[in-house]
Amino acid sequence: MRKSNLMRYNASHLVVFQSLMRTRNVTTTASELNMSQPAVSRVLAHLREMFRDPLFMRSSEGMVPSARALAIANQVSVIVDDLADLISPEEFEPSRSDRVFRVASTDYGVNTVLRPLFAKLSHLAPDIQVEIVPISIDSQKELTNGSLDLLLFTTVSTETNFSSKFLFKESYSGICCETHNLAKQKKVGLEEYLKWPHMVSTPLGRKGSVVDRKLAELGRSRHVALRQPYFTTAPLLLLNSDLVLTIPTRSAVLMLEIAPLKIFQLPFEAPGFEYNLYWHPRSDNDAAHLWFRELLCKQVDQSRQL
């Protein structure tokens, strides 16, 4: 039979065949499949046309299968079971999975979003792997072509149509060595803030920042003595120096775990930013992907409540 001829037939009719093979009774099959007896009879007529065989014949002992029906019964059962598995929701068992998730992020995203995830992940899904890659100009393209699973970032172009999840709103704080003169002040004024040399952490290598734009609005500027691309190296660079760093507050708090530093409130209002999780819509209903996203977001929510 040509494949095009299959369009004439309804695969669900095979379910009726499978039931009749088991029950040998039209009434019982109708009840089992929540159908009327006439509906079962109509399906049987279609099956007879499909297989060009009587398939089931009435007798005093019920519906007796023909030789053709007996010959194809096992194959029909396999097809029906395979179809049921095909259209059933995908099941995902984290403890047995060795799935690899590729996530693009800066070290800010690794420390604030992914770090709380790893302890939980190793317990629930010890064989799952997370591969963290740097954010680049190709990250959105990689998310589109499937070589990347997730992207942690502030905002992306609305033209991309990626699925997304808002994680949190971030603010900015100042931080310096605990022996710095600014660390001794209860409240840091603008003149004192600008008096000292500044370090700028720019993970994506961009020049200019929210802070510089805000200072420009005030008709002021700062002296940037050091520009480097990492948040994680910043605490060590601040130690025993006169440098001042203005960074996202969550990063500043984490730096206190690394070195003896002091966080202070900025002497001006610096607009914060939203941090989001992005993925391609094709993964919206992927069971493994959904499980990973939900676990990640749950850990972020719990960290936010601490």
TrEMBL record:
Keywords: DNA-binding, Nodulation, Transcription, Transcription regulation
InterPro entries: LysR-type_TF, LysR_HTH_N, LysR_subst-bd, WH-like_DNA-bd_sf, WH_DNA-bd_sf, YidZ_PBP2
Keyword Lipid biosynthesis among record annotations: no
Keyword S-adenosyl-L-methionine in annotation: no
Annotated SUPFAM superfamilies: Periplasmic binding protein-like II, Winged helix' DNA-binding domain
Molecular-function annotations in GO: DNA binding; DNA-binding transcription factor activity
HTH lysR-type domain segment(s): 9-66
Pfam families: HTH_1, LysR_substrate
Protein family: Belongs to the LysR transcriptional regulatory family.
Protein's recorded name: DNA-binding transcriptional regulator, LysR family
Organism: Pseudovibrio denitrificans
